[in-house]
Amino acid sequence: MTGALCLGAAASIRGTVAHRVARVNVANPGVVVIEHPAGRLETRMSMRAVPGSDMPVFDRAGIVRTARPLLAGNVHIPGEVWNLA
């Protein structure tokens, strides 16, 4: 998760390699979607410029994460386990 936040922050800062390859959604400029082999992560950044500084300040950095089922199955528990109480 930390790596996703760092990548989302880097993609938000002009001049970084991540910003150069990122596709910006004009309707949602603070959202950076990171796609990977297992799915996708959506990061949300809120940053502002500081007068007299070249470094931006991030007021908010978060991740929206969805999970998909990795497996489904049955667990067989012997009847005597339930009678231990």
Task: Describe the protein's architecture and organization.
- The chain has one domain (2-64).
- The chain is built from three helices and three strands; from the N terminus they run H-H-E-E-E-H.
- It has helices at residues 2-12, 17-21, 79-82; strands spanning 31-36, 39-48, 57-64.
- Strand 2 and strand 3 (57-64) form a beta hairpin.
**Average pLDDT, all residues:** 85
Helical proportion? 10-25%
How many β strands by DSSP?
Answer: 3
Q: Nearest-angstrom radius of gyration?
A: 21 Å
The proportion of residues in beta strands is 25-35%
Q: Helical segment tally?
A: 3
Low-confidence stretches: none
> How would you classify the helix and strand content by structural class?
alpha+beta
The secondary-structure element order is HHEEEH
Q: Give, in spatial order, the strands making up the sheet with the most strands.
A: 1-2-3
- Count of domain modules: 1
Biggest sheet layout: 3 strands, antiparallel
> How many angstroms does the end-to-end distance come to?
42 Å
Silhouette: elongated
Brief description of this entry?
The chain has helices at residues 2-12, 17-21, 79-82, and strands at 31-36, 39-48, 57-64.
Topology, element by element:
Blueprint: H1 2-12, H2 17-21, E1 31-36, E2 39-48, E3 57-64, H3 79-82
For this entry, give a set of tags.
85 residues; alpha+beta; three-stranded antiparallel sheet; 3 helices; 3 strands; 24% helix; elongated
